[in-house]
Amino acid sequence: MLLAISKNELVGRQKKLIDKLQASQLDCAILFSVVDIFYLTGFHFHPTERPICYFIDPQQKSHLFVPALEHEHAEEFACVDHVHSYPEYPGLRHPMEYLKDALAEAQFAGKRVGFDADGYGSSMGYRGQKVSQFLEAKDFSSIYGWVEEMRVIKSAAEIELIKESCRWGNLAHRLLQKYTKPGLSEIEITSRASTEATMAMIETLGPDYKPHGNTAYAIFRGQIGPMSAFPHAVTQNLVLKKGDTLVTGAAGEVWGYHSELERTMFVQEVSSEQEKYFHFMLQAQDIAFAHIKPGKPMSYVEEAVQAFFKENEIQHLTSHHTGHAIGLLGHEAPFFDLGDHTMMQPGMVMTVEPGIYVRGLGGFRHSDTVVVTEDGMEMLTYYPRDLASMICV
């Protein structure tokens, strides 16, 4: 399989955006979103204080505006017609002055311009003018979220990359469970499992493999014992004890595409109380799977899960929605949530992860990655889910 998105598909994405601009009577566009630039051009870069943007001119040509240190990198890897660069930030002349020149040369003046943000944003010390302060356009319109909406329905190539991610998450998790023993620290276990899975991944996939993110990994993320009752705990360097509840995570990005595999496991033994909440969680996930249907709103899934929690009087032990879209980001829209009425469509890739959290006992959450199909869903992750398989011996 091709371990990347083809140039033809990238060009098709750009054409789709151009069509949307024309339908909205916009002449040109400027985008600053890192993930959207990668989605449209295939150029993966590290955003810093140095501004980077993508723009489409009135002649429908595509451009990348980058710092000089990225110029050759962009020419080598970006699917665009033109690359522009500036010496450095902050420099003797501000990068926005160079962008002003590039936009003028591309005939943006007096045009109807769409942008996803009125300037570059960074938490790394960047300061600079807004586009609307230096570009004399006919008018400006926000196209924020347009490319994100394009990313919602995955192509066949995107789904294959996500499936490949699932395979290596599966291996990493197998190794994590194999090495999970009382008396060992979470960092020791996760480091060993992640390294071994990564070495197998790069040896198997060969030089064509580009992660554009994390290689294969499996983690506890601090969700060990009573700490597993915090849905987004962070690594604590805890030492595992017999009877601990564990909530795990495993994946491996392939050309920037994510998957999500999470499991609730137990160290050597499981109590009746742990078993009770584990089965509640498993039932909730099965209910969610059964309600994933094209043509139904996202909220339809969450309503069914919440009804189950309420029926069993455990809704007070839940604290997050049932799932989210996934792709180039670990969390994307739409969401399995009561407030999200986006219609499910074939090609949407989602996580399914209803969780139950009992203070002092632990958290109970499996997460599986699925794709919506014409008549329901297809499970992309395939790690065992049953209780017997989740006891680490």
Automatic annotation (TrEMBL):
Residues in coiled coil: none
Stored CDD domains: APP_MetAP
Hydrolase in keyword set: yes
InterPro entries membership: Creatin/AminoP/Spt16_N, Creatinase/aminopeptidase-like, Creatinase_N, Pept_M24, Peptidase_M24B
Residues covered by the Peptidase M24 domain: 160-374
Domain of life: Bacteria
A GO molecular-function descriptor: aminopeptidase activity
Domain Creatinase N-terminal: start-end pairs: 13-153
Keyword tags: Aminopeptidase, Hydrolase, Protease
One matching Pfam family: Creatinase_N
Protein name: Aminopeptidase P family protein
